[in-house]
């Protein structure tokens, strides 16, 4: 699957700023469908991801599953090109789902911020605090189906796990 091909790539890097060049910059992803590219020019950028804190306890649980929040910024040049922010998330059973982002405030000039929320991994059926993990990668989908995957902080998928205390906030593309 595409996610496996992306995880095997190590195309890392980060330009100092996104903005106007974000639509043009790209690196072809090996084995991916035509139009899928790695964004290393800060066109789509993970800002924060993690397990939501609970109101009554250390973590939020809804419908028997942990609640996860992801925040992504999309360069204005991509928004102007009618791109949409999406999140490719690996599910409990190993398959992958694409989620649509909701526009929210808080992005710096030249970007639009998007928020994603999903529920995954139940405390009863997994030992997430011991070995569980959530894999995902933000991407921008352009009209016509071309996709630009966030490779600004790392090449491949982001993973929330015990090793990073289920929290990521890459300091890139500021």
Task: Describe this structure as you would to a colleague.
It is a single chain. This protein is mostly beta strands and 174 residues long. The protein has a single domain (2-11, 30-153), classed as Immunoglobulin-like (Sandwich), CATH 2.60.40. It has helices at residues 2-7, 76-80; strands at 27-28, 36-39, 44-51, 61-62, 65-75, 84-90, 96-100, 102-104, 111-120, 133-141, 147-150, 158-161, 167-168. The strands form 2 sheets. Strands 1, 2, 6, 7, 10, 11 and 12 form a 7-stranded mixed beta sheet that branches. The longest helix has 6 residues, at 2-7. The radius of gyration is 16 Å and the shape is globular.
Structure characteristics:
174 residues, mainly beta, Immunoglobulin-like, seven-stranded mixed beta sheet, 6% helix, globular
Task: Describe, in short, the structure shown.
The chain is about 5% helix and about 40% strand.
List the helices and strands and how they pair.
Elements: H1 2-7, E1 27-28, E2 36-39, E3 44-51, E4 61-62, E5 65-75, H2 76-80, E6 84-90, E7 96-100, E8 102-104, E9 111-120, E10 133-141, E11 147-150, E12 158-161, E13 167-168
Parallel strand pairs: 2-11
Antiparallel strand pairs: 1-2, 3-5, 3-13, 4-5, 5-9, 6-7, 6-10, 8-9, 10-11, 10-12
Please tally the β strands and state the result. 13
Helix content: under 10%
- Helix count equals 2
Q: Calculate Rg over CA atoms.
A: 16 Å
Provide the low-confidence segments as ranges: 1-31, 127-131
